[in-house]
Amino acid sequence: MASRTGLLQIGQVAERTGLSLRTIRFYEENGLVRPTSRSDGGFRLYSDDDVARLEVIKRMKPLGFRLEEMQELLTLLADLAERPDDAALTDRLRMFHEAATARVHALREQLGTAEGFAADLAGRLD
């Protein structure tokens, strides 16, 4: 449940995103996300935009993007929200798209190898 201000405490954000409290704090310590504010008691309070940033990070992680790349993409997405017709920003986004697509293909190949291995093992059980 959201606080009276419409902001979420870290536990609520963890529940919503499926990230651990430790992971959220790690991303905060590394400058990828910052709580919008703090409660009178010092609890971190996150906005929907903060949660959206964490969702982007969560989706980049399995593709092997480094923290610096995550920060760059988050900044790029924020800049594009302000200047959607900026060709240079769009070109940079295209580069991220190409990198993500290449990483997805690599993961599919790894999965195929793993599935083949599992099938070979299953065949030895028969």
Labels describing this entry:
single chain; 5 helices; three-stranded antiparallel β-sheet; mainly alpha; flat; 126 residues; Multidrug-efflux Transporter Regulator, Chain: A, Domain 2
Structural commentary:
- The protein is mainly alpha-helical.
- The chain has one domain: Multidrug-efflux Transporter Regulator, Chain: A, Domain 2 (Orthogonal Bundle), CATH 1.10.1660.
- The chain contains five helices and three strands; from the N terminus they run βααββααα.
- A three-stranded antiparallel sheet has the order 1-3-2.
- Helix 4 crosses helix 5.
- The chain is flat and about 65 Å long.
- The mean pLDDT is 94.
Quick overview:
This protein is mostly helical and 126 residues long. The chain has five helices and three strands, in the order βααββααα.
